[in-house]
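Lecture 7 notes: from sequence to structure.
We start with the chain below.
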Amino acid sequence: MENLQQPSLCCYPQARIATGIAPGGNGMIRIQGIVKAAQIARSQLQEGVPRSRLLSFQEFIQETLAQINQICANANISPSQLPTPSRKAYEFLAQIDLSNLPVASQHSPSVSVEPIRLKNIRNQQQQVLAAIASIVAHPQNSHSQKQQLLKSLQETVGTIDGICTQQNATPAQLNKRSRQTYAWIKFLTDEANLERHLSATRRTQQQAEEMLWTRMQHPCKTIAIAFTNMTHLYKGKIGPLEAKAQINEAFINANDEILAALVRLAFVGKNQEDSQGIKEYALSEEYSEVVLELDLIADTEAENPQGKCYNLDRLFHTLNREYFGGKMVKPRLSWNGSFTTRKFGHYERGRDRVVLSISLDSDRVPQYVVEFVLYHELLHKQHEGKWVNGRLNVHTPEFRQDEKKFRKYKEADQWLTRLASE
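Predicted C-alpha cells for the same chain:
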C-alpha cells in the first residue's frame, strides 16, 4: 500500500454546523457538529488551554454557540428543545466560563488538539476495498489473500499510530476523514470483524448480481459492492457499464433480507417497505454495536479511568472482589468523550478494554448505576459468546443469568431506561 505522508495541522477548526430533520418524522431539528465541538472543547479544557490559544479557543466557543442560537431562532425553538445529544452538548458549551479558562502549564507539554490530516488516506481506503473485492471474487485463494490483507492492515494502523505519536497526539486528533478511515482499518485488523465484513460483502454481491443480471438483465459489465465506515446508510449509482454501492459498515451483521433491501434501494430506487426495514435495522442493537465500536476506536482521547465523579479503577476492584472472587485480570478502563444516550458502555475484546460513556460520569447518576454498566461490560470479558446460525450471540443465557446477580439489577436497569429516554 502507498506510504502515508506526514500530516498537515491547522488551528481550532471553524465550527461546521449543519441542520437537518431528526429521524422519526417528528419534525425535530437536528444540528450536526455540536457534539464534535463539545468533544474538542472538553479535551482542551482537560489538558488546559495554552496561553497562545486562549483567544482562538474563546472565539471557537462563541462562534459555535452563536450559530446554534441562530439556527434555533430561525426554527422558532429554544436550544432546550434539541434532541438529547445536541442539547447536552449545547449545555456543556454554554456553561464554559470563558473568562476563567484553565491555562496549560508551561512546564508540561499539552496534547495537541489541532486536527491532523493524513495525505493519501483515501488511496489507503481504496486499496483495502480493492483487496477485499479480490478476495470475494477469488474464493479459492481467500485464505492466503486474507492473511496478506490482515498484515497490510496492521502495518497501516502502525504507521498512523506512529505519525500521531510524532505529533504528540492520538488518533482522536485526526480530522474527520482520516479518523473515520483509521477506525475502519483498525476495526478490520480483528480477524473476526474481517470475516464478517467479507461474508456480508460476498452475500450482498451475490444479491446484486442476481437482481441486475438475472432478473433485470441489466447490461452493466461490473458490479462493485463496498462496506465501509461512512455517515450515510448507503449510496448507490448505476450506469451502462458499472453499478456501484457503498454500504455502512454497521450492516455487516445484517441478514440476507436486509442486504437484499439495501441492494434494491441502491440500484432500483426507494420504496416504503425497504426504507422502513432499513430504518428499523439502523435502530437495532446489532447496528449500534458496530457504530459504537468504530467510534470508540479513535474517539477516546486518553485512557484515563478517573472521571469527574467516578474512578473506574476503584469501581473495578470493588466489583472484582464482590462478583469475580478477586480473580479477574483488570482490563484497560477509560471514559470516552462522546455524549451517548443509547449505549453506555462497550468491551473491546481485541484490546481488552472497557470504555464507559461520560453520560454516566455525573453526580446525578447513582454509583450503583455506573457499577452495573461496568459489571455488564466485565461479563463480556468473562463470557466469550456463542455463534448461532452464523451470528455471534454475546448475550447468552449464561450471560443473562450472571447479569441478574448484580445486587441492584432491577433498580439499575430501570434507571438506565429512564436515562436513555430523557
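Points to note: The chain has a mean pLDDT of 82. Residues 142 and 319 are 44 Å apart (CA to CA).
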